[in-house]
Amino acid sequence: MANNISNTTLSLTKISCLLEAQEVVSDTLATFYLAGWKTCPSFIKAREIVAAMQMLYPDRLAFKILLFEDREKFRVWLKASQGDFAVSFGAKSKAMKHVTSPFVWSSNPTTFVGGCDDLLLFFRSGIAVGRPQGMHTSDEVAEISSTAVQEKPIFDYDLVVIGGGLGGLACSKEAASFGQKVCVLDYVKPSPQGTAWGLGGTCVNVGCIPKKLIHQSSLIGEIIRHDSARFGWKFDNEGKTVPVFDWKQLVANVDGYIKTINFKYKVKLRSKNVKYENFLGSFVDPHTVKLSHPRKGTKQITTRNVVIAVGSRPRELTCPGGEYAVSSDDIFWMKEKEPGKTLVIGASYVALECAGFLKGMGYEVKVMVRSILLRSFDQEMADKIGEYMEVQSGIKFIRKTVPQSISRLENRQLLVKWVDEKGKTCEEAFNTVLNATGRDPEVAHLGLDKAGVKLNEKTGRIMVKNEQTSTSNIYAIGDVVDAPELTPVAIQSGRLLSQRLYNNSSVQMDYDKVCTTVFTPIEYGCCGLSEETSKGRYGEDNIEIYHTNFVPLEWSLSSETRTASNSCYIKVVCDKSRDKFVLGFHYLGPNAGEVMQAMGLAMRLRFTYDQMVNTVGIHPMTAESLTILEVTKSSGGATTGGGC
Question: Which residues form the Pyridine nucleotide-disulphide oxidoreductase dimerisation domain (predicted)?
Answer without folding.
Answer: 516-627
